[in-house]
# Entry
Amino acid sequence: MSKISLNLNVWAIATDPIYIGTGGYSIGRVDNTIVRDPITKIPKIPGTSFAGTWRYYIALYLQSLFKDQYRIKRSERIDVDKISDLFIDDINNRNEQGFSEIKEWVYYEGNRYAAIKCAGQDESPQDEYSEACTKDTGHCGNCIVCKGFGFSKKDHSWQGMLSFSDLNIALFPIYTRWGTKWISSGRILNEAGLLQEGDGFDEDNMIILNEGAYGPKEGWLNLGWLNLPYKTAKMNIDFNQINSLFNIKEKDICIVPDKLISQIINSSLEVRTSVSIDPITGAAKDGALFTSEAIPRATVFYGTVRIYDKSMFKGIEIKINDSYAKINDLPTVKQLTLALKSTAGFYETLGIGGMTTRGFGRLKVLLNN
Ligand SMILES: [Zn+2]
# Structure
């Protein structure tokens, strides 16, 4: 129905261990397991978590600009043209983007209805939807967050214009006797678009190091506790896309067979043991020892965000459950792109997933056109 108008490549590096739990499953000695790809069994950050946090960050950013004292009473709503003076200084103090770029998406007309409640789940999905939202609860249905990520009301639902893929592991850090290497496989490098056309690496039981790597031309290398034979070969990996995020060198890359990578990653996850504390005595609760696994810091992920151009729906009335709703105004693809870019920095402080209060979850995220 709607065409994809922009595919943004996402690259991210974990600056903390990342824990996104499955809830309730135990594997071996681990009580709190993380989300994995059902086929490869390689841990990942699911697209739903990724989209959910970004939704929250955009809503948070808008609120931080409007601030309480500037926030217009519900009855009179924000006059988008008048907010400029109020937060011009504020924007100038944030150097991620120029003022004109931030203005371009923050001034989207529907943002005058934005509220922090547009993030997260709608508390009152049974409300009727109106274009000039005056309700204090639930998603407003008008702002760039609601239009971009979608919302659902009693008589009207909107799928949104953004689609987030899972963030899959592209490069995984692993301890070797020659220092940290980042492992990947032929399939993963290909899927992540890091290989030049025609290059392929899939040696059956060998790992491949770059010609420039430390050590003899062939021999054995330990990846964690696994000792594997290696050979050296010329690599032509295109790191241009990720260099501004993470300056990685080919000599630190180790390509492992596709059939082994899942085993190697799963045997090198971070595992932590914690106890629950009894809030009354301040001591450990009896029998409350638990272990959690996490994706280690310095793991590099890749994924995509697609932005769908739905401008053809503008002005059209759509029949939903016996009533008609009209799509009045939509943010442009450019406005959505800018909104994502201005808020990607929140991942560096607020993070993603669970246990963020225990130093988990921070990511550095890069969006490339
Ligand atoms: Zn909204």
